[in-house]
Amino acid sequence: MHTELIEVRTGGEERVVDLTSRIADHLRFVDAREGLLNVWVPHATAGVAVIETGAGSDTDLLTALRDLLPADDRWTHRHGSRGHGRDHVLPAIVAPSMSVPVIDGELALGTWQSVCLVDTNVDNAVRSVRLSFLPG
Hints:
The protein has helices spanning 20-29, 57-68, 85-93; strands at 2-9, 15-18, 35-40, 46-51, 97-103, 106-107, 114-119, 126-135. With 136 residues, it is of the alpha+beta class.
């Protein structure tokens, strides 16, 4: 298994960050040919998703999450910025990990699919993402 921890700067705002090119770099670096790539976010307030980016779907996802998980005072978990408790619920909806097949050294994604970090926590501007390639 080959593993690497990458740092992702999300800033102080809700973000969907496309990780696909950084993952491709990792696969080239470890000379991955066939197997599975596991993407893991070791945080209690972020997740990973496969979604189209650049055509508004990433913004739509954040809008849907705001509707589903409003940043208000309803949450029992109350430290941090207003509504921060919702960030701790996010990984139950947007999972903190996924596995993607690797075929001929490339992620086996569909035409418009990207692997993205989803982060609604405005209190944490830097995230880690672990990329682990398991040869097949």
